[in-house]
Amino acid sequence: AAAAAAADADGSGSHDGPALGVVLTHVQADFDTLSSAVGLAKLRDHRMGAPCTFVVLPRGASPGVSHYLALHKNKFPIKSKKAIKVDTLEWVGVVDAQRKDRLADCAQWLSIAKDVVVVDHHVLATSDINATELIVEKVGATATVVAEMLQREHVRISPEDATLLALGIHTDTGSLTFEATTPRDAAALAYCLGQGASQKVLAEYVRPNLTLEQREVIAKGMSGIRKTQSEGITVSCVHVETSEYFPGMSTCAKEILDLTNSDVLLMAVSYIHGKKNPYRHVSVIGRAKPVKNVDLSAVLISSLSGGGHPKAASAAFRMDQPLVNYAPEIMAAQAAGDVDVILDFLVKRVVDEQIPPQKTAAHVMKHAEQIMSVRPDATMQEVGDMLEKWQFRSCPVISKDGILMGVVSVSEIDVAAIKGQLDRPVSGYMKLRFAVSRETAVSECERILVDEDEGCIPVVANYEDPKKQWRLAGLVTRSTILETHEYYRSESYYRPLTQYIPPPAKKYNAAPAGAPAFFDSKTLAAGVSGLRPGAGWVDVAQEVRNVRRSEVIQEVKALEVSQEVQNVRRSEGSVEEPGPGT
């Protein structure tokens, strides 16, 4: 009886208990697919009330995963393909993949099982799996989806389970730095840490040491790189031939992308497979930095039936099996056995279809009519007061004739204050080290701002004329450059009111008499009156800004009135001028 029970438990004997289930990773398993498989198996066991679900790796794993499993395999319900009695299989889960070719020969199990569940995070991926349940979420990692399911159903997980899930989230989101990362990924990672995920293990496996084979591939890739410049974007490609299959080539692609200062990289890795009937196997790996509009998954899906993310995609094919119904250039290059021509075609598609015309200074500058400027005879004190009042860092100096004479910044104001020369005219401190034309590329403007540590760059309307005749068309500032990068999401994230303004544990400390407060809590309460916890979703940040804006307007009006009164008194001799050092 004990032997029979053991046989049932490992899937090798008759099955009279809970229905046998298997979760399949994709070939060359990474941490995301492995952790998702383990988590999904644990979830199904929880629902079934018995340990009846096992994880199978159809074909190999990445070097980091292989090393990890060599030490941790006994911690998880992982079985080899041979240990599963397929004729008793009733349930199959597939994680981090939606195509049968990603499951190797285990794909035939899909037609045997009664239920097939697919869990993935590749929203745009095409699927040829006839799943009874398809769960695809727009998040950075499949492990995030599984972690949320475990948390939602209150499934107890061990520190090893939590660590593996955290590894999946870390590696597939670049430790929360990839463009596809969402707040849900961060929350799932926090959940894993709360369940005891080991930071020591994360530190060791999130960025593992490169193998000798990986270092050789990177060296070959660095020496054979070919670059194409388009609209300030560098699109690179390289073909690396290896003696045999080596895992971990995606890591090599990421390293080459960074080391060559490329924005987009398409790397082909090929090797001769087989002895009796040898053929060349080619893997194309695409990696991209956060370049707007670049979608490598779209290129590789339509060109080579690949898949992946917009900034991380791949495709694989054999040179001896004709690629039918594809672009004529692809089919001709394959027939000729020329991998480099295939790469050139892919690069051309990225350049022609996905890289937009580069913006110029005229597109991003603040126009002259929107800019505060000063005359050359204004004192440094007056300019400093103006910059401080309006929270500007610099302003242009324009003559009475409208000629651009220079730029003065808070740095020059500080120097004048230290020297006690705030009463000097701004003409003695202004500078005009750099200027650009309307047609200057934004990338060149950014280079000047960064390399030369300039706060702003004047855009000259008549740049071709002599310098003494220049007229200001606008300014390119750090803020305008940041806006072109679109680093920050424009949409608001709405949350319940109670999540942003919890009830205070104690009363606020009273501000010193006469000291302006950032915002008054009573005024804030009046500004958002009618909003109560549970009354709906509101953008609290916008409400605070609206209240604060009205306060600032009132403060500015009061300051202006006060300044007018002081001016009148000063003209009547009733106000003493400030002395030195005041």
Tally of separate helices: 20
Alpha-beta content class: alpha/beta
Tell me how many strands there are. 19
What gyration radius follows from the Cα positions, in whole Å? 32 Å
- The CA-CA distance between the termini, in Å, is 95 Å
Specify the biggest β-sheet.
6 strands, mixed
Strand order of the largest sheet: 6-7-8-9-11-10
Question: Helical content, roughly?
Answer: 25-40%
Proportion of residues in extended strands: 15-25%
Shape: elongated
Low-confidence parts: 1-15, 490-541, 574-582
Q: What is the mean pLDDT?
A: 84
What does this structure look like?
The chain is 38% helix and 17% strand. The protein is built from 20 helices and 19 strands. The strands form 5 sheets. It has a 6-stranded mixed β-sheet, sandwiched between helices. It has a 5-stranded parallel β-sheet with strand order 2-1-3-4-5, with helices on one face. Strands 12-17-16-15 form a 4-stranded mixed β-sheet. Helix 5 (159-173) runs antiparallel to helix 6 and helix 5 (159-173) runs parallel beside helix 7 (199-205). The chain is elongated.
